[in-house]
Write a structure and sequence with these properties.
Elements: E1 5-7, E2 14-16, E3 23-28, E4 34-41, E5 48-54, H1 56-72, H2 77-105, E6 110-111, E7 117-119
Antiparallel strand pairs: 1-2, 3-4, 4-5, 6-7
Helix pairs in contact: 1-2
The structure holds zinc ion.
Amino acid sequence: MLKAETVCRECNKTNEVFEGILKNVTAYDKDGIEIYLLCYTCPLCGTLNVVQIDNAITNRTLAECKRILRYGMRENGTAKNSMKKKYNKLCKKLSAQRQLLNKSYSGAELFDSAGETFIKSLTLS
Ligand SMILES: [Zn+2]
């Protein structure tokens, strides 16, 4: 689901992203709604790059995906197939929700918990 490489929005360096450099940060939009950012700091120029954003809605869908994956694997035959179908449907739903989220927060200003500007204009790497 996650890209292995992204290009830094500041210096155009191609960075490999892996779990070790990615961090989860909670930010807030202008209405105070929590947004969960998956981001990394570019090793060349120090710019914070956001690779994925989630909110309460996508997190709920993601949790449901994981739950089906976990329990669905125990099933056999038809039950397993119907779980698989359900899982694929949820994955589609999740990516549609994320696309919508990306669109609605493109260029948005985000704040940290102290109310300071955290990101001036959100762009996804
Ligand atoms: Zn950079």
